Amino acid sequence: MPEKKTVQEYAFKELNTLNKKIEGTKGLPEGLKERLVEMVQRLERMANIGHYAAEFDTLARYIELVTSVPWIKETEDYLELKGAREILDKNHYGMDYVKERVTEYLATLMLLKKRGREAISSAPIVLLVGLQGVGKTTMAYSLAETLRRKFVRIAMGGIGSTQELRGKSKAFPEAEPGQIIKALIKTGVRNPVILLDEIDKASGEQGLRFDVMAILLEILDPKQNVEFRDHYLDYPIDLSDVLFICSANTTGTLSTALMDRMEIIKMPSYTDDEKIVIARDYLLPQIFEKSGLNPGELEVDPDLWPGIVRPFGYDSGIRSLGRTMEAICRKVAKEIVEGKSKKVLITAENLKYYLPK
Question: Whole-prediction pTM value?
């Protein structure tokens, strides 16, 4: 008997918490609010008769999730083109053509906003196309940083089911919302920048790929995404203020309808000369921070940078180069911790030792 009372007390305490969340959720649509109130009343009846079933947990979880969605909370865009270029230069070396295209895109958004028109819904979706490691994700993050919006990345590679994007009905066991709703909840705002990363790798199965492309079109098309319906949420939500950015290694597997909605920006591969500057001025300071090194504890003979970069010259991006620099810094950190060195100068004589095997 005491155990039953404890369960009931827990249930009523949880119901009280759910009621507070419903009342405290700003911008909750009236129709959805009425539905949640009815659910709580149903749970109260179950608790009154001492009936605590799996359905109680299912409905309680649904209410918690719906009240976590940012229905009206948003960040204010920062509209300043000079600052945008400074951020792009800070995060990326070279790529003048790409930076110019990105600033033109931002200028369009800014002009529409300043003149009181719908900016995001009027602008095409940016599709960054390039080989791995050329900076597509960083470029998307730079766009978010420029506008001072929250940023979240959704990995599209290997999407095995359309439910991963659209969610699964709460009627099924272990149901959950799709990645889009999860992204909104994670950022806590209704207008984040969402990167749909590597959409060309969504699925290897042709039939499923067509389904995924159809859902992507619904998510990205401003005429359709104003009432996007996630199967778990089971209520339309407006995605028109979300700034979607897509990336792909190639456009060969993308549907024609989806491509028509895209503004393609091709990301070039890096030359060895560009990699030297990136390794010296961009990667090394970041890796110092991660490895605990101070700038003066590792120096590289300027003439050796081509030898550090060249073995990975075939790599279009900088990931291999980044791993090389990390391996060098780890060895230096080990020597400093062991007391063997206070400062390391990499020369032609010891370069082979510090390079990863």
Answer: 0.81
